[in-house]
Amino acid sequence: MGKVVLLGSSGFIGKNIFEYFSNAEMPIVAFNSNECNLLDYNEVEHVLGILDEDDTLIMSSSITRLQENTINSMNKNILMVQNIIKKLDKQKIKHFIFLSSIDVYGIAHNKQQITETTLLNPNDYYATSKVVSEYLLRTFCEVKNIKLSILRLSGVYGKHDYINSTIAKIIKNIIVHKSANIVGDGSLQRDYLFVDDLVNIIECIVKNELATTMNLATGKSISIKKLIQNIFFLLDIKESIVYSNNDEENNFMRPSDLNFDIGVLKKHLSGFEFTNIELALKKYILLFRKQDEH
To answer: Do domains 4-155+191-216 and 161-190+221-258+275-293 have the same CATH topology?
Structure first.
C-alpha cells in the first residue's frame, strides 16, 4: 500500500483523519488550504507532485454550507475538483476518496429510506456542488481506471467540532443556558455519525481499496427530542425544553425525516459496529468539558 495524501487537514473531519492515521502509523501526508490552495492550479500541480501511482488521495476540502452557500462558493467547490482532475490527468494514483454529503438527495425522497440509488435532487448551491463534483470524479476515474470511493456523510459530530454541528450547538446551549430549543414537537428523525466511526470506516476503505458510493450513516435515526433528552441526562442537568414554531431549518428546505438504508456499508464492511449514541455523546461531552476547563 502506498501513502495517503489528505487535502483539508485543518477542517473538522480532516483533523480527525490525520490524527487517527498518524496514531495508527499509516503513512499519511496532509495539506491544509494555506499549504495547498486548491483554487490555484499551479499550487495543486506543485503540491500534488508528491503523488505516486500506488497512493490514495482523500479530499476532505470544501467550502461548507455554514461558511457560505452561494453560487460563488458552489463554483469554487467545483473548481477545486476540476484542478485536482487536471493534475491527475498527468499523474495517476490508485485510489481517490471524495467526502460528499447526504445533501445530494435533497428533499425528494418522500420520507422513504434513502439508498445510494435514491434520486439526486440537490436544493441549494452546496448540495449542487457535491453532485457536480461526484459526476466529474466518477467520469474521470472510470476513464483513467482509478478506484473511486464517494462517501456521502450524514450529520458528523465529535472531536474538533465544538461550534458547527447540530449536536455541538445543542450541548453548548444546554451547558450555557441550562435549556434547549426545539422547533415543532421534536419528532424529526436525524441520523448522526460519530467522527471516531467515520475515520475507522475510512481506514477500512483505504486498506481494502474499496471503490464504491456509500451512505455513511448509522441506519438508526433518532428524534431531535430524544437526542436532547439524552444530552440533558448525560450532563446531569434538569431537563428544560423550549418549543417554538420558528423553523429555521425550512430556510434550507430540509426534509422532515432522514432515514438511511446502509446495506452497501454492511456489504463492504461486514461486522463493523457503530458506537452506541449514548456512549458517543458521553465521550463528546467529556471533550466539551475539558475544553471549557482550558
So the answer is: no
Q: According to the CATH classification, is domain 4-155+191-216 in 2.50.20.10? A: no
Is 56 within 8 Å of 97 (Cβ atoms)?
yes
Q: Averaged in consecutive runs of 10 residues, what is the pLDDT profile of the chain (294 residues)? A: 93 95 91 95 96 96 90 97 97 96 80 88 95 98 97 94 84 91 87 96 95 95 94 94 69 66 93 93 87 62
Contacts of 120 (CB under 8 A, 6+ apart): 104, 105, 106, 131
Residue 119 grid cell: 434520486
The pLDDT value recorded for residue 75 is: 98
Rounded Cα distance between 213 and 228, Å, is 31
| Residues contacting 146, CB < 8 A, separation 6+ | 88, 92, 93, 94, 95, 96, 140
- Residue 30 burial (CB < 10 Å; 0-12/13-18/19+)? buried
3-class state of residue 262 by DSSP: coil
Q: For the chain, what are the domain ranges?
A: 4-155+191-216, 161-190+221-258+275-293
Q: How far apart are CA 128 and CA 247, in angstroms?
A: 23
Overall pTM > 0.90? yes
Q: CA angle 56-57-58, nearest 5°?
A: 120
Q: Which CATH superfamily is domain 161-190+221-258+275-293 in?
A: UDP-galactose 4-epimerase, domain 1 (3.90.25.10)
Euclidean distance between CA atoms 95 and 215, whole angstroms: 18
> How far, in Å, CA of 116 to CA of 137, rounded?
16
